[in-house]
C-alpha cells in the first residue's frame, strides 16, 4: 500500500479520535465548558411563540434575561431596584413616579432613557399580551430619567407591574421583527434562536448590574420525559421535570424542589347555562355546578391531602382558596376538614340530589350529577389532579369525566365546563381577575362567573390602600366570617393543591437555593441566575 495513503488514513483516524474526545464527555454526550450553562428549565412557560419580545409576553412572569425591568423582587418578596433608582405613588394610588438610572445602554449601543420605558409600557398595554395593565391609562416621560404612570382607578398593586415588563428601545422597535432579533439591556444578549429546539444567549459585558458568572446560556425547549432523559445523559446543567419524577435519582445530579406560589384549582361555574354568551360568542354557565350543593359537596368530599400525597407524588400542599400559604394575604380561616364523604353526601341529599336508580350517580329532577372536567393534556400534574378528583367524586355520587384537551379547544368551553387551572402571583390583583364580578367571562378572567358584591367590595377597598395594609382585605376575599369564595362561602372553585417545581441540578453547579426566587405560575428558574456558580469542573462530576 502506498505510504502516503497509509499516513492519510492514520491522520483521518487521529482526527476522528481527537474530535470524539472533544465531543464526548464522560457518559458519551456533547461536552460543555465550565463557563457555559445548558438548561431545560424554561418548560413552565415553554418556547415563546412570538419570540423574545416583552410586548408579547416574554418574561412577564420571570426573568427576561435579555431585557432590563424597572424592579425585581427577592425571595422574601420585597422590591429591589433594577433600572429604577426610586419610585413613589401618590396618596390615592392613581399615579406612580419612577426615577431610572442614567448609565444604561442597549446592546446596540444606544442609550436607554425614560422615553424607552414609557414606550414599552404603553406598547405592552396596547398588545395586552404581557402583565395586566388595564388600570394604567398611560406612561409618560417627564424627563430623561423620570417616568410617570397615570392610572384610571386606585391600584396599590401597580407596583408589581414594575417588575415584569422588559424595556425595549423605542427608536428601533419593530413588532414584526423584534422577537427574533431582540435588543435589550439585560444580563445576557441574544445570539441565536433555533425554533423548536433552543435559544442561545451570551453574557452582556456592558450590563450595569451584578454580572452572571457564565459566558453562555443555552436554553433547550425540552419538557417532561425528554428533559429527564437529557439529564440522565448528562447533557444538561438543570432539567425541569414533572412532579412524577420528584422521587427519581440521577447519578451526578441532585433533586431540588422549589417552593412556588403556583396553585391548581378547578372552576365550578356558579350560573346556569341559559344560552347567554360573552362578547366573543363563548357560552356561559353550567346547569350542574350552578347548584351550590354540588359545589359544596365536591369541596367537602374531595381529599386534598390524599391528592397531594398520591397523585402529586407527595410534594403538593393542600390548598382551599387559591392563595399560596407563602403569601402574606394567605387566609388560614378558609381551610376546611375535607375528605368527608358523609358530609358531602348529606349536602347533596339536603340539596335534593339522590340516587334513585341505583347506578351510584345522584340525580335531581331527572338530571344526573355528571360534569366534564378538562385539563391541558401536556400538563401531567393537572391530569393527575383531574383523574384523582374523578375517582374521589364517585364516592359521593357525582360523575366527573376527566378529559385531556388543549387550549384551542378549551377556549370554547372555559366558561361552561370545569377546567383545571393554574394561578399564583406576587401580585394580589390576580384575585381581581379571578373573582371580580365585572370580569366574569372576559378573556380568561373569572371562569367560575363569581358575582359576589361583598368580594368586590373587599377588592375595591384593598386596591385603594397601601399595599402592606391591604393584605387583610385581600385575605377577606377568601372568607371574612360570613362570605367569600372559599368552600365556606360561594365554593365557586375546588382549589386543590399548591405545586412545587421539580429540578435536577448537576452536582457541579450551585444555584444558590437560599436566594432562589419563589416562582409564580408559569415562572422560570432564572430569577437568581446572578448568584449561580460552578463549584467543581464538569469533568469531575460527569
Q: What does this 3D model show about the protein?
A:
This protein has helices at residues 3-23, 114-127, 224-232, 292-301, 304-309, 341-350, 380-394, 407-410, 430-435, 453-463, 471-478, 538-541; strands spanning 24-25, 29-30, 36-40, 71-73, 79-81, 84-89, 95-100, 136-143, 146-151, 188-194, 198-203, 216-220, 238-241, 253-258, 263-267, 317-318, 363-364, 367-368, 370-376, 399-405, 420-423, 493-498, 501-506, 509-510, 533-534. By secondary structure, the protein is an alpha+beta fold. The longest helix has 21 residues, at 3-23.
Question: Which descriptors apply to this entry?
Answer:
542 residues, alpha+beta, seven-stranded mixed beta sheet, four-stranded antiparallel beta sheet, 25 strands, 22% helix, disordered N terminus
Compile the SSE list and pairings.
Blueprint: H1 3-23, E1 24-25, E2 29-30, E3 36-40, E4 71-73, E5 79-81, E6 84-89, E7 95-100, H2 114-127, E8 136-143, E9 146-151, E10 188-194, E11 198-203, E12 216-220, H3 224-232, E13 238-241, E14 253-258, E15 263-267, H4 292-301, H5 304-309, E16 317-318, H6 341-350, E17 363-364, E18 367-368, E19 370-376, H7 380-394, E20 399-405, H8 407-410, E21 420-423, H9 430-435, H10 453-463, H11 471-478, E22 493-498, E23 501-506, E24 509-510, E25 533-534, H12 538-541
Parallel strand pairs: 3-12, 3-13, 19-20
Antiparallel strand pairs: 1-2, 4-5, 6-7, 7-9, 8-9, 10-11, 11-12, 13-23, 14-23, 15-21, 15-22, 16-22, 17-18, 24-25
Helix pairs in contact: 4-6, 10-11
